[in-house]
User: Fold S-methylmethionine:homocysteine methyltransferase from Bacillus safensis.
Amino acid sequence: MIPMNPIQSRLQAHAPLILDGALATELERKGCNLNDRLWSAKILIEQPQLIQQVHLDYFQAGADCATTASYQTTIEGFAEKGYTKEEALELMKRSVTLAKEARDLFWQDEARREGRTKPFVAGSVGPFGAYLSDGSEYKGNYGLSEQALIDFHRPRIQALVEAGADILACETIPCLIEATAIAKLLQDEFSGTSAWITFSAKDGLHISEGDFIRECVQALEPYEQIAAVGVNCTPPQFITSLIQEMKKGTSKPIVVYPNSGEEYDPEEKVWSGDTSHLTFGECAYQWYKDGAHIIGGCCRTTPEDINDILKRTTS
Assistant:
Protein backbone atom coordinates (compact mmCIF):
# COMPACT_ATOMS: atom_id res chain seq x y z
CA MET A 1 0.00 0.00 0.00
CA ILE A 2 1.32 3.47 -0.91
CA PRO A 3 1.41 5.59 2.26
CA MET A 4 -0.66 8.74 2.29
CA ASN A 5 1.63 11.74 2.31
CA PRO A 6 -0.04 15.16 2.58
CA ILE A 7 3.34 16.88 2.63
CA GLN A 8 4.53 16.02 -0.86
CA SER A 9 1.65 17.47 -2.87
CA ARG A 10 1.45 20.60 -0.73
CA LEU A 11 5.14 21.33 -1.07
CA GLN A 12 4.70 21.13 -4.83
CA ALA A 13 1.97 23.77 -4.55
CA HIS A 14 3.83 26.12 -2.22
CA ALA A 15 6.76 26.22 0.17
CA PRO A 16 7.42 26.41 2.95
CA LEU A 17 4.65 24.52 4.65
CA ILE A 18 3.83 26.33 7.89
CA LEU A 19 3.10 24.31 11.00
CA ASP A 20 1.35 25.55 14.12
CA GLY A 21 3.06 26.64 17.33
CA ALA A 22 2.83 25.66 20.97
CA LEU A 23 -0.45 24.17 22.14
CA ALA A 24 0.35 24.15 25.86
CA THR A 25 1.49 27.78 25.84
CA GLU A 26 -1.82 28.89 24.36
CA LEU A 27 -3.83 26.74 26.76
CA GLU A 28 -2.00 28.36 29.67
CA ARG A 29 -2.74 31.79 28.21
CA LYS A 30 -6.40 30.77 28.27
CA GLY A 31 -6.17 29.98 31.97
CA CYS A 32 -5.38 26.24 32.02
CA ASN A 33 -3.17 24.77 34.73
CA LEU A 34 -0.88 22.24 33.04
CA ASN A 35 1.36 21.42 35.99
CA ASP A 36 0.46 17.75 35.71
CA ARG A 37 2.03 14.55 34.38
CA LEU A 38 -0.57 14.55 31.61
CA TRP A 39 0.36 18.13 30.61
CA SER A 40 -1.87 19.37 27.75
CA ALA A 41 -3.56 15.94 27.53
CA LYS A 42 -5.24 16.90 30.81
CA ILE A 43 -7.32 19.44 28.87
CA LEU A 44 -8.67 16.72 26.57
CA ILE A 45 -10.57 15.61 29.65
CA GLU A 46 -11.41 18.94 31.29
CA GLN A 47 -11.96 21.54 28.55
CA PRO A 48 -11.66 20.03 25.07
CA GLN A 49 -13.33 23.05 23.49
CA LEU A 50 -10.26 25.13 24.40
CA ILE A 51 -8.04 22.78 22.42
CA GLN A 52 -10.30 23.18 19.41
CA GLN A 53 -10.12 26.96 19.78
CA VAL A 54 -6.31 26.94 19.89
CA HIS A 55 -6.21 24.87 16.70
CA LEU A 56 -8.57 27.38 15.07
CA ASP A 57 -6.41 30.30 16.23
CA TYR A 58 -3.39 28.75 14.52
CA PHE A 59 -5.25 28.08 11.28
CA GLN A 60 -6.39 31.69 11.23
CA ALA A 61 -2.80 32.80 11.86
CA GLY A 62 -1.62 30.93 8.75
CA ALA A 63 -0.82 27.37 9.81
CA ASP A 64 -1.16 24.69 7.14
CA CYS A 65 -1.29 21.96 9.78
CA ALA A 66 -2.66 21.33 13.27
CA THR A 67 -0.70 19.05 15.57
CA THR A 68 -3.02 17.15 17.89
CA ALA A 69 -3.06 17.32 21.69
CA SER A 70 -1.82 13.74 21.98
CA TYR A 71 1.88 14.34 22.66
CA GLN A 72 1.62 13.16 26.25
CA THR A 73 -1.29 10.74 25.84
CA THR A 74 -0.34 7.18 26.73
CA ILE A 75 -2.26 4.23 28.10
CA GLU A 76 0.20 4.09 30.98
CA GLY A 77 -0.15 7.78 31.80
CA PHE A 78 -3.94 7.72 31.77
CA ALA A 79 -3.95 4.51 33.83
CA GLU A 80 -2.07 6.33 36.58
CA LYS A 81 -4.99 8.77 36.67
CA GLY A 82 -7.56 5.98 36.91
CA TYR A 83 -8.60 5.69 33.26
CA THR A 84 -9.08 2.36 31.51
CA LYS A 85 -7.28 1.42 28.31
CA GLU A 86 -10.48 1.95 26.34
CA GLU A 87 -11.00 5.40 27.85
CA ALA A 88 -7.38 6.32 27.11
CA LEU A 89 -7.71 5.31 23.46
CA GLU A 90 -10.91 7.34 23.11
CA LEU A 91 -9.15 10.42 24.50
CA MET A 92 -6.36 9.94 21.96
CA LYS A 93 -8.95 9.78 19.20
CA ARG A 94 -10.66 12.87 20.60
CA SER A 95 -7.47 14.83 20.00
CA VAL A 96 -7.76 14.11 16.27
CA THR A 97 -11.47 14.88 16.16
CA LEU A 98 -10.93 18.29 17.78
CA ALA A 99 -8.24 19.22 15.26
CA LYS A 100 -10.34 18.06 12.31
CA GLU A 101 -13.36 19.99 13.57
CA ALA A 102 -11.26 23.14 13.94
CA ARG A 103 -9.90 22.66 10.42
CA ASP A 104 -13.40 22.28 9.01
CA LEU A 105 -14.63 25.37 10.87
CA PHE A 106 -11.74 27.35 9.44
CA TRP A 107 -12.36 26.06 5.94
CA GLN A 108 -15.98 27.24 6.04
CA ASP A 109 -14.75 30.84 6.24
CA GLU A 110 -14.29 31.67 2.55
CA ALA A 111 -12.65 35.00 3.21
CA ARG A 112 -9.94 33.56 5.46
CA ARG A 113 -9.26 30.53 3.30
CA GLU A 114 -8.75 32.50 0.08
CA GLY A 115 -5.45 31.50 -1.51
CA ARG A 116 -4.88 28.77 1.06
CA THR A 117 -4.47 25.01 0.66
CA LYS A 118 -6.85 23.07 2.90
CA PRO A 119 -4.95 22.39 6.15
CA PHE A 120 -4.20 18.89 7.34
CA VAL A 121 -3.98 17.23 10.75
CA ALA A 122 -0.84 15.65 12.22
CA GLY A 123 -1.32 13.17 15.04
CA SER A 124 1.30 13.98 17.68
CA VAL A 125 3.35 11.02 18.90
CA GLY A 126 5.54 12.13 21.77
CA PRO A 127 8.56 10.08 22.88
CA PHE A 128 8.70 7.61 25.74
CA GLY A 129 10.43 10.38 27.67
CA ALA A 130 7.27 12.50 27.59
CA TYR A 131 5.39 9.77 29.46
CA LEU A 132 8.12 9.83 32.13
CA SER A 133 7.42 13.56 32.55
CA ASP A 134 10.92 14.24 33.85
CA GLY A 135 12.57 15.93 30.88
CA SER A 136 13.82 12.65 29.37
CA GLU A 137 12.79 13.81 25.89
CA TYR A 138 15.82 16.10 26.15
CA LYS A 139 18.17 13.37 27.40
CA GLY A 140 17.21 9.93 26.08
CA ASN A 141 19.16 7.02 27.55
CA TYR A 142 15.97 5.16 28.46
CA GLY A 143 17.61 1.75 28.68
CA LEU A 144 14.76 0.21 26.69
CA SER A 145 15.05 -2.21 23.78
CA GLU A 146 13.78 -1.38 20.31
CA GLN A 147 10.97 -3.92 20.75
CA ALA A 148 9.90 -2.34 24.04
CA LEU A 149 9.65 1.02 22.31
CA ILE A 150 7.66 -0.49 19.45
CA ASP A 151 5.22 -1.98 21.94
CA PHE A 152 4.94 1.33 23.78
CA HIS A 153 4.12 3.36 20.65
CA ARG A 154 1.77 0.89 18.96
CA PRO A 155 -1.54 1.65 20.77
CA ARG A 156 -1.40 5.42 20.35
CA ILE A 157 -0.38 5.21 16.71
CA GLN A 158 -3.26 2.79 16.13
CA ALA A 159 -5.71 5.19 17.79
CA LEU A 160 -4.51 8.25 15.87
CA VAL A 161 -4.64 6.39 12.55
CA GLU A 162 -8.13 5.05 13.27
CA ALA A 163 -9.32 8.56 14.15
CA GLY A 164 -8.23 9.85 10.75
CA ALA A 165 -5.01 11.79 11.29
CA ASP A 166 -3.58 12.73 7.89
CA ILE A 167 0.00 12.13 9.00
CA LEU A 168 1.84 11.39 12.25
CA ALA A 169 4.15 13.89 13.93
CA CYS A 170 6.66 11.76 15.83
CA GLU A 171 8.36 14.55 17.70
CA THR A 172 10.97 15.51 20.27
CA ILE A 173 12.64 12.12 19.80
CA PRO A 174 15.92 12.15 21.79
CA CYS A 175 17.52 8.94 20.55
CA LEU A 176 18.02 7.09 17.30
CA ILE A 177 16.76 3.75 18.66
CA GLU A 178 13.33 5.29 19.29
CA ALA A 179 13.22 6.82 15.81
CA THR A 180 14.04 3.52 14.12
CA ALA A 181 11.55 1.70 16.37
CA ILE A 182 8.78 4.00 15.11
CA ALA A 183 9.91 3.68 11.49
CA LYS A 184 9.93 -0.11 11.72
CA LEU A 185 6.53 -0.18 13.44
CA LEU A 186 5.02 1.87 10.63
CA GLN A 187 6.68 -0.28 7.98
CA ASP A 188 5.54 -3.56 9.53
CA GLU A 189 2.07 -2.70 10.82
CA PHE A 190 0.85 0.62 9.36
CA SER A 191 1.82 0.48 5.72
CA GLY A 192 -0.70 3.13 4.62
CA THR A 193 0.48 5.74 7.10
CA SER A 194 3.18 8.36 6.72
CA ALA A 195 4.95 10.36 9.41
CA TRP A 196 7.59 12.92 10.04
CA ILE A 197 10.23 12.27 12.69
CA THR A 198 11.82 15.19 14.45
CA PHE A 199 14.58 14.91 17.04
CA SER A 200 15.37 17.10 20.02
CA ALA A 201 18.95 18.38 19.73
CA LYS A 202 21.44 19.60 22.32
CA ASP A 203 23.65 21.64 19.98
CA GLY A 204 24.20 22.30 16.29
CA LEU A 205 25.50 18.80 15.54
CA HIS A 206 24.00 16.26 17.94
CA ILE A 207 20.59 15.03 18.99
CA SER A 208 19.89 14.93 22.72
CA GLU A 209 21.35 11.48 23.39
CA GLY A 210 24.55 12.39 21.57
CA ASP A 211 24.37 10.88 18.07
CA PHE A 212 25.18 13.10 15.09
CA ILE A 213 21.98 14.48 13.53
CA ARG A 214 23.43 13.77 10.08
CA GLU A 215 23.74 10.07 10.89
CA CYS A 216 20.26 9.94 12.42
CA VAL A 217 18.47 11.30 9.37
CA GLN A 218 20.63 9.11 7.16
CA ALA A 219 19.44 6.05 9.12
CA LEU A 220 15.83 7.01 8.33
CA GLU A 221 16.48 7.55 4.61
CA PRO A 222 15.41 4.01 3.52
CA TYR A 223 11.98 4.24 5.18
CA GLU A 224 9.51 5.42 2.54
CA GLN A 225 6.81 6.22 5.09
CA ILE A 226 9.00 8.78 6.82
CA ALA A 227 7.89 11.74 4.73
CA ALA A 228 10.13 14.33 6.37
CA VAL A 229 12.84 14.54 9.02
CA GLY A 230 14.09 17.30 11.25
CA VAL A 231 14.25 18.81 14.71
CA ASN A 232 11.83 20.39 17.13
CA CYS A 233 11.82 21.87 20.65
CA THR A 234 15.43 22.90 20.14
CA PRO A 235 16.85 26.42 20.71
CA PRO A 236 16.69 28.62 17.59
CA GLN A 237 20.43 29.35 17.59
CA PHE A 238 21.21 25.72 16.68
CA ILE A 239 18.79 25.40 13.77
CA THR A 240 20.91 26.69 10.87
CA SER A 241 23.77 24.33 11.72
CA LEU A 242 21.37 21.42 12.16
CA ILE A 243 19.76 22.07 8.77
CA GLN A 244 23.17 22.14 7.12
CA GLU A 245 24.08 18.84 8.77
CA MET A 246 20.78 17.17 7.86
CA LYS A 247 21.17 18.16 4.21
CA LYS A 248 24.31 16.00 4.15
CA GLY A 249 22.37 12.91 5.23
CA THR A 250 18.91 13.04 3.67
CA SER A 251 16.97 13.77 0.51
CA LYS A 252 13.71 14.03 2.45
CA PRO A 253 12.06 17.40 3.18
CA ILE A 254 13.48 19.00 6.30
CA VAL A 255 11.13 20.12 9.05
CA VAL A 256 12.08 22.48 11.88
CA TYR A 257 9.95 23.84 14.68
CA PRO A 258 12.17 25.16 17.47
CA ASN A 259 11.12 26.45 20.86
CA SER A 260 11.46 30.11 21.80
CA GLY A 261 15.01 29.66 23.10
CA GLU A 262 14.08 29.60 26.77
CA GLU A 263 15.13 26.72 29.03
CA TYR A 264 12.74 24.18 30.56
CA ASP A 265 12.82 23.03 34.19
CA PRO A 266 11.23 19.53 34.20
CA GLU A 267 10.76 19.51 37.98
CA GLU A 268 8.98 22.84 38.29
CA LYS A 269 7.55 22.54 34.75
CA VAL A 270 8.36 26.17 33.94
CA TRP A 271 10.35 27.98 31.24
CA SER A 272 12.86 30.74 31.89
CA GLY A 273 15.66 32.67 30.22
CA ASP A 274 15.90 34.78 27.10
CA THR A 275 14.34 34.30 23.71
CA SER A 276 16.10 35.00 20.42
CA HIS A 277 16.89 38.67 19.71
CA LEU A 278 15.32 38.20 16.27
CA THR A 279 11.61 37.72 15.67
CA PHE A 280 10.51 34.17 14.99
CA GLY A 281 9.61 35.17 11.45
CA GLU A 282 13.07 36.60 10.82
CA CYS A 283 14.61 33.35 12.04
CA ALA A 284 12.19 31.30 9.96
CA TYR A 285 13.10 33.19 6.80
CA GLN A 286 16.75 32.29 7.40
CA TRP A 287 15.87 28.63 8.03
CA TYR A 288 13.88 28.59 4.79
CA LYS A 289 16.90 29.96 2.90
CA ASP A 290 19.07 27.36 4.66
CA GLY A 291 16.91 24.57 3.23
CA ALA A 292 14.03 23.87 5.64
CA HIS A 293 10.83 23.00 3.77
CA ILE A 294 8.40 22.80 6.71
CA ILE A 295 8.60 25.39 9.49
CA GLY A 296 6.67 26.05 12.68
CA GLY A 297 7.11 26.65 16.38
CA CYS A 298 7.29 24.52 19.50
CA CYS A 299 7.15 25.43 23.20
CA ARG A 300 6.53 29.09 24.06
CA THR A 301 5.63 30.10 20.51
CA THR A 302 2.26 31.63 19.67
CA PRO A 303 -0.16 32.32 16.80
CA GLU A 304 1.57 35.68 16.44
CA ASP A 305 4.84 33.87 15.75
CA ILE A 306 3.18 31.66 13.15
CA ASN A 307 1.67 34.69 11.44
CA ASP A 308 5.13 36.27 11.46
CA ILE A 309 6.51 33.18 9.69
CA LEU A 310 3.74 33.48 7.08
CA LYS A 311 4.48 37.14 6.40
CA ARG A 312 8.27 36.75 6.29
CA THR A 313 8.42 33.65 4.09
CA THR A 314 5.68 34.53 1.60
CA SER A 315 6.34 38.23 1.05
Notes: The two ends are 39 Å apart (CA to CA).
